[in-house]
């Protein structure tokens, strides 16, 4: 296999080197970030279906389980939860000649997979590719396509599959692949309402629907599939929101006790953050969730030129300009105190914020 220079980052318009590696591979492992979402899941499933059709051995290993509202996607392609404890899965990962990380550009987002991938890379037996659209990528992959102009990794995957199809003179967009990609693009554009939803995104969504993607089914299965426990948590959370600093900050802390009281799970908090930005005066919305292992998960949303990815970066996180997140390695009380001070300082003068 002829491989590109280590750490090379490509323009999304030139897929040739990445295609060379994928088409020459025998066994490919695909993965996405911890606490997977529709973009990561849809993108990896679409690529898995194409590679399997091309005769490759393909496995999807994800560091955390698939959230319940996305499990319908596993009917298209199986996803294995890789927690680092199953020797058979570890052995299979070590035998892959290519691993592809989708919808993340930081090594830590690979969770339990990273130590095993890093070891295989060190031995020279595996090449790591990365396809993503977030800001400020880490330098850890052998070949990376990271285009922050894109609305989603699903948009980039659509372009990649078109490029592969053109090279092979084949139409690769089956109904199943179109469905997976539609989920990827729909979810990461906020159902086609976020600023990066360009005319091109609308056109590719229409193309995917014309090829068999069921838009109504995707929306219904993802957004209308709350469990009673998740609904109870939402109700409790909405009564706990605090509006601070003349309405500019929306703040919510969800404790382990709240999760226990409602019988809900960590993934049930994912859709709550959108409500925090629904007050017109709010410029920064912060959702903090106390995790079972003692860490605290923080999600940020903002509007306008308040770029919260800079705030998340201070704590080892990242994301988009108006949607980002991070993990605090210390107690929730300390995390809330430290973060509130930083949010206020950041909102006062975003350009001079020291991260």
Describe the structure concisely.
It is globular, with a radius of gyration of 20 Å. The protein has helices at 16-24, 38-53, 87-95, 114-123, 153-168, 175-188, 199-210, 215-223, 228-238, 256-262, 308-313, 332-348, and strands spanning 8-10, 27-32, 57-62, 80-81, 98-102, 127-132, 143-146, 242-244, 249-254, 284-290, 296-302, 318-319, 323-328. It is α/β, with parallel strands linked by helices and 355 residues long.
Features:
inorganic pyrophosphatase (n-terminal core), 18% strand, globular, single chain, 2 domains, seven-stranded parallel β-sheet, 355 residues, alpha/beta, Diaminopimelate Epimerase, Chain A, domain 1, 12 helices
Describe what you observe in this structure.
The chain has 355 residues and is of the alpha/beta class. It folds into 2 domains: 8-222, inorganic pyrophosphatase (n-terminal core); 228-352, Diaminopimelate Epimerase, Chain A, domain 1 (Roll), CATH 3.10.310.30. The protein contains 12 helices and 13 strands. Helix 10 (256-262) links the parallel strand 9 (249-254) and strand 10. Helix 5 (153-168) packs antiparallel against helix 6 and helix 6 runs antiparallel to helix 7. The radius of gyration is 20 Å and the shape is globular. The N and C termini lie far apart (41 Å).
């Amino acid at each position: 296999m002829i491989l590109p220079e280590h750490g090379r980052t490509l323009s999304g318009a030139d897929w040739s080197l990445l295609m060379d590696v994928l088409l020459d591979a025998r066994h490919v492992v695909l993965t996405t970030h911890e606490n997977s979402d529709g973009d990561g899941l849809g993108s990896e499933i679409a690529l898995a279906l194409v590679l399997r059709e091309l005769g490759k051995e393909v496995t999807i290993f994800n560091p955390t389980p698939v959230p319940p509202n996305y499990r319908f996607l596993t009917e298209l392609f199986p996803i294995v939860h890789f927690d680092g404890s199953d020797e058979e899965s570890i052995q299979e990962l070590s035998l892959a000649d290519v691993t592809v990380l989708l919808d993340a550009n930081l090594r830590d987002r690979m969770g339990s997979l990273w130590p095993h991938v890093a070891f295989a890379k060190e031995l020279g037996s595996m090449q790591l590719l990365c396809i993503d659209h977030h800001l400020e990528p880490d330098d850890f992959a052998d070949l990376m396509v990271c285009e922050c102009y894109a609305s989603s990794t699903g948009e980039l995957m659509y372009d990649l599959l078109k490029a592969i199809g053109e090279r092979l003179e084949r139409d690769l967009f089956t109904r199943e692949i179109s469905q997976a990609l539609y989920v990827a693009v729909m979810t990461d554009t906020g159902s086609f309402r976020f600023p990066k939803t360009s005319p091109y995104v609308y056109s590719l969504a229409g193309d995917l629907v014309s090829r068999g993607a069921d838009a109504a089914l995707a929306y219904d299965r993802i957004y209308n599939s709350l469990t009673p426990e998740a609904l109870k948590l939402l109700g409790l959370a909405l009564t706990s929101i605090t509006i601070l600093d003349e309405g500019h900050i929306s703040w919510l802390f969800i404790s382990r006790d709240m999760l226990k009281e409602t019988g809900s799970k960590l993934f049930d908090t994912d859709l709550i953050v959108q409500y925090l930005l629904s007050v017109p005066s709010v410029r920064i919305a912060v959702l903090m969730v106390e995790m079972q292992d003692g860490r605290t998960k923080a999600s940020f949303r903002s509007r306008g030129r308040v770029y919260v990815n800079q705030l998340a970066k201070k704590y080892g996180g990242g994301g988009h300009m108006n949607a980002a997140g991070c993990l605090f390695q210390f107690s929730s009380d300390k995390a809330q105190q430290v973060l509130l001070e930083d949010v206020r300082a950041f909102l006062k003068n975003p350009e001079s914020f020291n991260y």
